[in-house]
Amino acid sequence: MMPSAFIGIDWSGAKGARQPGIQIAVAKAHSDAPPQTITCLNHKYWSRDAVFAYLVDLAEQPVDGSGPILVGIDFAFAHPFHDTNAYYPGLDIAPLLPPKTPKDLWAKIEDVCKAEANFYGGAMFAAPSFGDYYLSPRNHKAPKFASRRRICEEAARRGGRAPTPTFKAIGADNVATGSMAGMRLLHALSARLGDRVKFWPFDFPNGLDAGNSDAYRLILTEIFPSLYFHAAGFNPAKGAARDPAFMSAALAHYNSAGVDAGFVPMGPDADEADAIISAAALRHHASKESRWNTPIEAQREGWIFGVPSP
Questions:
Q1: Beta-sheet strands, E only, within the chain
Q2: Which of 77, 107, 265, 292 has fewest C-beta within 10 Å?
């Protein structure tokens, strides 16, 4: 069954109680209406805890037979694995018991970071043994860091935009901090919701078929907003997405109506625009059966929704 709605979440791994960069937009199914922004009920800014509560509330609503909600979030759902047959090559002896599956990886990160509030994941960068793999402010030398890439990232490069390696936690293109926080979120959602949430592509080895869709409310998947802009022929650098005409033209590529003429995206980096383009791209790509199929490597590494399988 196809999704009944499409939610794009522009994520943030920043430390603190609230993250102005977190923005959420929802696109209706069977419509070309532009995605609409969802604001946090009790605060000007979202926190990661508030995003967790929002998703739990969605998942715990009664299943009405219209189909699950597809939720895309902007962080890596796992590290590279197939290049070395390990997430952390070299940690293959007891008692470390290195993770071998995505859910084991999420659990390991949660265990290391559990003392940090609001799903912050920075403790991973200073953790004994594990910290040596992350190039971070806590470990500038990082003797085991390598610029490894997942299969989906190489495929995204062919589509015009390659994500930063998932072990990089410094600089403007740091993706590791957000991914550590994100994997903690995935672990918490799995523990709280059980069968009411599915994770694509891990729970979908045969494409969209994942058993009885009446039993679950949410499908969570990885997104890459910058890629969606570039795939449409638009470069969102230097605040270009703040221009309503630019934004509307990019949305048109995904068969979506444009934003209002007075559109001014919220967030320090026009993050609302990223959430909007992602929700529209999810709606567009979900209608294509081929986009639900991934190579076998995706079962360990994850996949960016909308990137064609090689």
A1: 5-10, 23-28, 36-38, 69-73, 197-199, 218-222
A2: 107
pTM over 0.90: yes
Asked if 81 contacts 108 with a C-beta cutoff of 8 angstroms, the reply is no
Domain boundaries, the chain: 1-10+21-60+68-310
Within the chain, how many helices (H) and strands (E) appear? 8, 6
Helices assigned H by DSSP within the chain: 48-59, 102-113, 151-158, 176-193, 225-231, 244-253, 271-286, 298-301
Q: What pLDDT, on the 0 to 100 scale, is given for residue 213?
A: 65
Q: What percentage of the chain's residues is helix, strand, coil (to nearest 5)?
A: 35, 10, 55
Q: CB–CB of 162/141 below 8 Å? A: no
pLDDT of residue 238: 87
